[in-house]
Structure to design on (586 residues):
C-alpha cells in the first residue's frame, strides 16, 4: 500500500548556498544519493518523514485487510489475502530499512507512529465492513499506490528508489488480485453486485484523496520536485489514476460515485481525460487529524501488538546477550 | 479398504492443517515484531496450502460433487475431525509458538514417512509438506529456546504454555479404527511409531530452552470424531461467515 502526498514535512536546510548548489547539480545530473553522501539536512528530514510515513502506511495498512483473513470466502481467496497482507508487512520492512540508512531506528519510528507524531496514509482509517472491500482496496488503493510509487522508483535517494522497485512489482500484483475479486462480485449474484457497488461508493473518494491536496495547496511539493524525491505533482498523478480507472469501472458495470465525471477530449494536451467533481477536503483533513471511523482503533491495535510483544522482544534480546557472553567465555577458555 | 477410509483420513489431515493455519493467521498484523508478521503468515500459508491440496483430493475421492471449499467451509462443527490442539486459542506468542512446535515436530516425522504412502497423491503432498514442516520446526524451536532461556518473565510464560498444551499432546499419537485401516493399507504411518523420535526432538529443544517438558499428561481427545472444545464454534463462525451468509455463490 502506500503513503498519500507527504503531510507536514519541514524541508528547510542550514547549509551554505554553495553546498546546496553543488548538491542540486548532482540531483540534476540524475545521480543517486547514497546513505554516506553529504546531503542537505532538509533533504534528509524530508526523506525520513516520507519514508517513515510510507513504512507506517504499509504496517497500518495490514489491519483493514487483516480484518478479513479469518473470514475469506474460499481457500484460494484466503491464501491470496493472507499472502497480500504479508507482502504489505514486507514492504514495511524494506521501507524501515531504507529509512534506517538515514539515521533513524525502527524503534524510534514505531514510537512516533504510536504517539501520533508520525502520520500514515489516512485511507487506512476507513473500515472494511464487507468482503467486497478486499476487492476495492486492491483495485483502488493499491492502484493509487502504484501511480504514486512508480515515479518513486526513480527517486534521487538510492535506497528508497531500490525499495520501490521491489515494492511496485508486488503492488501491481495486488491491484490485479483486487480487481479480480471485483470482477467475480460484479458478475455475481445481485447481492454480490450490490456489495461491489457499495464498496466502490465508499472507497472511490478516499482513493482520489490519497494523492494529497491540490497542487495549489501543497506546500512542500516544489522543493521535493527540485530534489527529485517527487517526479509528478499530486494533481498530475490523480488525473492519471482517474483516467486509468474509469474504464475499469465501466468494464465491471459499476457506477463511479461522481455525478460530475465527464470525458473531456481537450484534457491532457488534447489526448483526452476525465473531468471530475469537487473533492471534499474537509473530510480529508478530518480523517488526517484523527476523526476517521477507525483512527483510534488502528493505533490501539498497533499499540496493543507493541505492548503485548514487549516480553518477546526483551526475551530475544536477553537470550542473544547470553549467547554472546557464552561464546566469549568459550573463546577465552580456549586461549 | 474402502474409499471412505481414505476420504476420512484425508479429511482429518486437512482439518488439522486448515484449523491451525486459520489460528495462526489471526496473528497477521498483530505480531510482537515485524519479522514475525512475515514468518507466521508464511507458516499459515503453508498449512492452509497443504489443507487445500488435501481437501481437493478428498473431494475427488468422495466423488459426490463436493468441492474443496464445500469441505472446508460447509460442514457442521461435529463433522470437522481435527485434533483439539490445533483449535486451541492462540494465547500469547509463546503459547502459539509452542503449539506450532509440538505439532510440526510431529508432522515432520509423519510427512517424512508418508512420502512412502501407497497412495501416490498423498505421497506427493507429503513430499512438499515434509520440506515445509522442517522449516516450521526450525523456526518455532528457535523461539522456544529464546523464550525459555530469555528472561524470568518469558521463562514463566513458557512454563505456563507447556502446562496448558500438555493435555493435547496425547491425541497426536492416537489411532482409532479408521486410522488402523489406513495404517494397514500403508496410506499413513502409525503415529505411535513416531513417538520416540518426537520425544527425543522435543526434549532436546526443551533442554536447550531450560524448560521442564510435560509429555505424559492425561490426554484430552475426541477431535477425530468431532467432539470439540467450546472455541471451535467461534472459529467456525468466522471461517464460514461469508459462505453461510451468502449461500451458493461464486467468490
Ligand atoms: Fe499492496
Ligand atoms: Fe504495499
Ligand atoms: Fe506501498
Amino acid at each position: 500500500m502506500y503513503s498519500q502526498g507527504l503531510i507536514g514535512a519541514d524541508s528547510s536546510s542550514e547549509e551554505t548556498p554553495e553546498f546546496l548548489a553543488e548538491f542540486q547539480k548532482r540531483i540534476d545530473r540524475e545521480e543517486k544519493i547514497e546513505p554516506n553522501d553529504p546531503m542537505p539536512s532538509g533533504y534528509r528530514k524530508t526523506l525520513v518523514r516520507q519514508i517513515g510515513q510510507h513504512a507506517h502506511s504499509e504496517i497500518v495498512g495490514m489491519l483493514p485487510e487483516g480484518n478479513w483473513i479469518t473470514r475469506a470466502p474460499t481457500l484460494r481467496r484466503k491464501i491470496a489475502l493472507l499472502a497480500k497482507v504479508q507482502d504489505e508487512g514486507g514492504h514495511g520492512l524494506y521501507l524501515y530499512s531504507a529509512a534506517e540508512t538515514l539515521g533513524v531506528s525502527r524503534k524510534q519510528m514505531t514510537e512516533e507512529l504510536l504517539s501520533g507524531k508520525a502520520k500514515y496514509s489516512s485511507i487506512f482509517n476507513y473500515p472494511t465492513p464487507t468482503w467486497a472491500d478486499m476487492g476495492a482496496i486492491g483495485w483502488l488503493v493499491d492502484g493509487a499506490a502504484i501511480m504514486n510509487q512508480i515515479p518513486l522508483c526513480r527517486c534521487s535517494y538510492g535506497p528508497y528508489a531500490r525499495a520501490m522497485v521491489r515494492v511496485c512489482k508486488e503492488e501491481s500484483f495486488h491491484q490485479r488480485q483486487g480487481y479480480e475479486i471485483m470482477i467475480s462480485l460484479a458478475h455475481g449474484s445481485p447481492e454480490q453486485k450490490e456489495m461491489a457497488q457499495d464498496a466502490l461508493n465508499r472507497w472511490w473518494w478516499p482513493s482520489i484523496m490519497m494523492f494529497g491536496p491540490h497542487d495549489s495547496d501543497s506546500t512542500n511539493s516544489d522543493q521535493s520536485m527540485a530534489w527529485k524525491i517527487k517526479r509528478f505533482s499530486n494533481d498530475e498523478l490523480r488525473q492519471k489514476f482517474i483516467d486509468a480507472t474509469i474504464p475499469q469501472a465501466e468494464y465491471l458495470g459499476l457506477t463511479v460515485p461522481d455525478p460530475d465525471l465527464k470525458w473531456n477530449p481537450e484534457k491532457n494536451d488534447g489526448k483526452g481525460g476525465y473531468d471530475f467533481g469537487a473533492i471534499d477536503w474537509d473530510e480529508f483533513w478530518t480523517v488526517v487529524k484523527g476523526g476517521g471511523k477507525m483512527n483510534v482503533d488502528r493505533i490501539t491495535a498497533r499499540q496493543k501488538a507493541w505492548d503485548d510483544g514487549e516480553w518477546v522482544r526483551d526475551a530475544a534480546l536477553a537470550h542473544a546477550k547470553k549467547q554472546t557472553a557464552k561464546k566469549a567465555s568459550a573463546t577465552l577458555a580456549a586461549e | 479398504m474402502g474409499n471412505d477410509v481414505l476420504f476420512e483420513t484425508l479429511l482429518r489431515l486437512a482439518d488439522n492443517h486448515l484449523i491451525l493455519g486459520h489460528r495462526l493467521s489471526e496473528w497477521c498484523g498483530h505480531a510482537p515484531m515485524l519479522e514475525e508478521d512475515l514468518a507466521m503468515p508464511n507458516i499459515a500459508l503453508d498449512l492452509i496450502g497443504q489443507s487445500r491440496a488435501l481437501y481437493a483430493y478428498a473431494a475427488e475421492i468422495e466423488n459426490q460433487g463436493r468441492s474443496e471449499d464445500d469441505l472446508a467451509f460447509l460442514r457442521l462443527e461435529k463433522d470437522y475431525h481435527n485434533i483439539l490442539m490445533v483449535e486451541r486459542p492462540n494465547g500469547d506468542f509463546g503459547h502459539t509458538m509452542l503449539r506450532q512446535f509440538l505439532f510440526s515436530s510431529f508432522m515432520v516425522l509423519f510427512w517424512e514417512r508418508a512420502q512412502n504412502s501407497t497412495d501416490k497423491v498423498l505421497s506427493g503432498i507429503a513430499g512438499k509438506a515434509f520440506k515445509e514442516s522442517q522449516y516450521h520446526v526450525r523456526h518455532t524451536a528457535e523461539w522456544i529456546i529464546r523464550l525459555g532461556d530469555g528472561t524470568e518473565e518469558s521463562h514463566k510464560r513458557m512454563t505456563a504454555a507447556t502446562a496448558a498444551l500438555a493435555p493435547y499432546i496425547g491425541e497426536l499419537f492416537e489411532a482409532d479404527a479408521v486410522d488402523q485401516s489406513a495404517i494397514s493399507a500403508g496410506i499413513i504411518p502409525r503415529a505411535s511409531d513416531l513417538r520416540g523420535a518426537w520425544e527425543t526432538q522435543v526434549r532436546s529443544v526443551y533442554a536447550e530452552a531450560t524448560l521442564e517438558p510435560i509429555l505424559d499428561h492425561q490426554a484430552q481427545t475426541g477431535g477425530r470424531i468431532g467432539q470439540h472444545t467450546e472455541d471451535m464454534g467461534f472459529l467456525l463462525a468466522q471461517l464460514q461467515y461469508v459462505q453461510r451468509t451468502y449461500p451458493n455463490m461464486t467468490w
About this structure: Chain B has a mean pLDDT of 97. Residues A 1, 58, 88, 91, 167, 171 surround fe (ii) ion (ligand 2) (CB under 6 Å). Residues 120-149 of chain B form the longest helix (30 residues). Chain B touches chain A through 48 residues (CB under 8 Å).
